[in-house]
Write a structure and sequence with these properties.
Blueprint lengths: L2 E5 L3 H10 L5 E6 L2 H9 L3 E4 L6 H6 L2 E4 L9 H11 L6 E7 L10 E2 L10 H14 L5 E6 L1 E3 L6 H6 L4 E3 L7 E3 H13 L5 E5 L7 H12 L6 E3 L7 H6 L5 E2 L2 H5 L10 H10 L3
Parallel strand pairs: 1-2, 1-4, 2-3, 4-5, 5-7, 6-13, 7-11, 8-10, 9-12
Helix pairs in contact: 1-7, 8-11
Protein name: SDR family oxidoreductase
EC number: 1.1.1.290
Enzyme class: oxidoreductase
Amino acid sequence: MNTLLSIGHGYSAQALARRLLPQGWHVIGTTRDPAKAAAFRTAGVEPLIWPGAALAPALARATHVLCSVAPDAAGDPVIAAHGAELAAARHLEWVGYLSTTGVYGDHAGGWVDEGTALTPTTARGRARVAAERQWQTLGLPLHIFRLAGIYGPGRGPFEKVRQGSARRIVKPGQVFSRIHVDDIAQVLDASIHRPAPRAIYNVCDDDPAPPEDVIAHAAALLGLPPPPEERWEEAEMTPMARSFYAESKRVRNDRIKDDLGVRLIYPDYRAGLAALLAAGG
């Protein structure tokens, strides 16, 4: 039986599981939280409390592995704890690692693709570059997925717009790429069925856009006025929020289309937001 070991079974991995389970897959998902473990079981996923329980038995059963765990200042925690076991798991048919387009750094709104040099300007981006390289040294059939900003059910802007807490922070020239979680899942599914070890894929939609445009469009869909603009230089933001505005780029996604045959379900934020609202927000 095809078995996916999903290490750090979070938002994107759960969307993949919803595609794989009807195809007859078995999915093992790790979590730190016993309450989430119970929810996994209800959804048809075998839960594994990790860190805590041994990973080796699940790894031995797995045919495929997906890692969604973010690195920390010390490096990739999965490799730190289980690098030797992973490197010895020569039975694996496919391994996926979820990274971020933050590895490319700032390009002043210019275009980047998978061949662009990795020049991150944030600590998070540098940690991701280091983690990608750690995974690449294991000798596994590795596929790296560099995800743009993720949205989807439970992660849309509508609630904040309704509550009046949404913000339209304007920094001239600032653009972000985005991706709906269902499109992440279909890219991962397509890669599993068309494995190409050592492949790297940007996972984003077709329409990089200023963040204030997305908020304004969400308000328009709700029939509400857009929140007032705030100048980036004057806006009160946490250091984490401000760091997202330190880099601006447009990310190309040709490879997921040309190599994996993906046709995006939501090719831009307009289609994605309309679908979220139609589904209840």
